[in-house]
Every structure is written in structure tokens, then in C-alpha cells.
């Protein structure tokens, strides 16, 4: 494929497939496209997910809750194969109309509560069990600021930088430069923020760390897009210290292992 200047038509049309890693699943419409019955186990929480950064977050929190002996956090984990289009099945769409993993259904309440968006799932579980979120309004507000920051910022890393650096059918300088600039700005922000504190919100590990680590922690640890050298991550010493500290948590190791084992 060669790079050519593109003159947009008056009305955009879906040119399927348009190449690239996700060409088979991306589409300009929402909603279920086929009937599907999801598996369901006996645990109070049923999680439908995959081992992506957004998926890993939820399993990280559930494993931390179980490590604290919170039995209400027991869960069954089922793999949603997004490259085969499982996210467009009727049962999955009933939990998450946005057709993206992760999606959770809490059967410990009546009626069972569906939750989608990884940040909303983390907040729901932290509030439900009253842990991994500060209890003061000031602390909670700081924690939620960083949680929402992650949710708004990581798409520039994943959908922008990661897509054009690792997945797009050809390497294009303009989008790679644009999203590398923004990704490095975000890494520098986290590095500066972590210079004088153990965790994102201070001394306590919280859902803000859990949301941020699978994206930015794993990026500087070289686990995403094989981009550690390109992004010169060694310069982010505080962020690297934090990333390694979290990686060493037993619950995190369990989550990484479990997520990929999902059936
Ligand atoms: N903001 C959402 C993003 C979720 C998301 O983008 N999930 C991706 C995998 S990481 C997905 O399911 N993609 C399938 C698709 O786009 O069809 C969240 O954090 O839950």
C-alpha cells in the first residue's frame, strides 16, 4: 500500500474491509448482530472480558478483593473473543450496549446489576466493598480525578499511538508523531506526579493505580506495542519504580495469569 493524499467524499461510506488489525470487527453501527447465550457460573460476579489493558484492570481489583478475604468478590471469568466478534452477541450487548470488554454482571443483588466501562466497574466494586477508594471526600475526589483521567487519556495511547505504531497497515509519520508526542506528555505527567508519592493518590494503593497500571505501567515495562525503546521509557524513573512495585503484587501476578487463562 502506498501513502496518498485523501480527499474525503461528500458522504463517508463504510469501505469494508479497510485493512489493519481490527478490520474484521470495526463497524460504524451499534447493537447486537446475532443471538448468543453467554455462559454463567455460580459466583456472585460474572465477568466477560479479555486480557487487554481494560480487561486486566477488573481482574486486578477482583484478585485484590479476594486476597483481603472478601468472598462477595468471587467471580467467574469468561473470555469474549473480540477478534471473532463475540462482543456483538445479544447476551453481551444486553450487559454492555457499547459492545466492548470488560462487562460485569452482579448477581448478588436483585435485580442483577449490569456494569460496563472499566472505570465504572472499578468504582462500582470499590464502593460495593468499601475498599481501594479513599473514604474522605477530598481523597475520593483526587482518586476519581485520576481514574477519569485514565479513562479519557488512554485512548490516545491505545487508539492513537498503539494503533498507528503497531497495528496500522503502514507506518505513517504524521499520526505516529502526533500520538507519540501526546503519549510521552502523559508519561511525563505520571512520572512527575509519582516523584514524591508511592501511589497515584498518595500512600494507599487505590483503583486509580489499578486503572492506570495496565496502560502506563505495562507500557514502560515493555509489555505493550514493543515500544519501550522508541518511547525511551528509561527516562521515567519514578513511573518505572511505581510500575515495578505494582507488578510485584501477588494479586497482579494472579490477574495477569488468570486473564489469559479465561475460557
Ligand atoms: N472505555 C472502555 C473501552 C473498552 C474497550 O475499548 N475495549 C476493547 C478491548 S480493550 C474492545 O472490547 N474492543 C472491541 C471492539 O472495539 O469491537 C472501557 O474502559 O471499558
From TrEMBL:
Annotated GST N-terminal domain ranges read 46-133
UniProt cross-references to PROSITE patterns, sorted A to Z:
GST_CTER (PS50405), GST_NTER (PS50404)
SUPFAM superfamilies, sorted? GST C-terminal domain-like, Thioredoxin-like
Give the coiled coil ranges.
none
Q: A Pfam family this protein belongs to?
A: GST_C_2
Q: Where is the GST C-terminal domain?
A: 136-263
Q: Report the domain of life of the source organism.
A: Bacteria
Task: Please give the PANTHER family that the UniProt record associates with this protein.
Answer: DISULFIDE-BOND OXIDOREDUCTASE YGHU, GLUTATHIONE S-TRANSFERASE-RELATED
UniProt cross-references to NCBIfam families, sorted A to Z: PRK11752.1
**What is the name of the protein in this document?**
Glutathione-dependent disulfide-bond oxidoreductase
Amino acid at each position: 500500500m502506498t501513502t496518498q493524499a485523501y480527499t474525503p467524499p461528500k458522504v463517508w461510506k463504510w469501505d469494508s474491509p479497510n485493512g489493519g488489525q481490527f478490520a474484521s470487527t470495526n463497524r460504524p453501527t451499534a447493537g447486537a448482530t446475532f443471538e448468543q447465550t453467554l455462559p454463567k457460573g455460580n459466583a456472585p460476579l460474572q465477568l466477560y472480558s479479555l486480557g487487554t489493558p481494560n480487561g486486566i484492570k477488573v481482574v486486578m481489583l477482583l484478585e485484590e478483593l479476594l486476597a483481603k478475604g472478601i468472598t462477595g468478590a468471587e467471580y467467574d471469568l469468561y473470555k469474549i473473543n473480540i477478534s471473532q466478534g463475540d462482543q456483538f452477541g445479544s447476551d453481551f450487548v444486553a450487559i454492555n450496549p457499547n459492545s466492548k470488554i470488560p462487562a460485569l454482571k452482579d448477581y448478588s443483588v436483585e435485580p442483577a446489576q449490569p456494569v460496563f466501562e472499566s472505570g465504572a466497574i472499578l468504582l462500582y466494586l470499590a464502593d460495593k466493598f468499601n475498599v481501594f477508594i479513599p473514604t474522605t471526600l477530598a481523597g475520593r475526589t483526587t482518586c476519581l480525578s485520576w481514574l477519569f483521567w485514565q479513562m479519557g487519556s488512554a485512548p490516545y495511547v491505545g487508539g492513537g499511538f498503539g494503533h498507528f505504531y503497531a497495528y496500522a497497515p503502514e507506518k505513517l509519520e504524521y499520526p505516529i508523531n502526533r500520538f507519540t508526542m501526546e503519549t510521552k506528555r502523559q508519561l511525563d505527567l505520571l512520572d512527575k506526579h509519582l516523584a514524591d508519592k508511592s501511589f497515584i493518590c498518595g500512600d494507599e494503593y487505590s483503583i486509580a493505580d489499578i486503572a492506570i497500571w495496565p496502560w502506563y505501567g505495562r507500557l514502560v515495562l515493555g509489555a505493550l506495542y514493543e515500544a519501550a525503546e522508541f518511547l525511551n521509557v528509561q527516562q521515567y524513573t519514578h513511573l518505572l519504580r511505581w510500575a515495578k512495585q505494582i507488578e510485584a503484587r501477588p494479586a497482579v501476578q494472579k490477574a495477569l495469569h488468570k486473564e489469559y487463562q479465561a475460557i
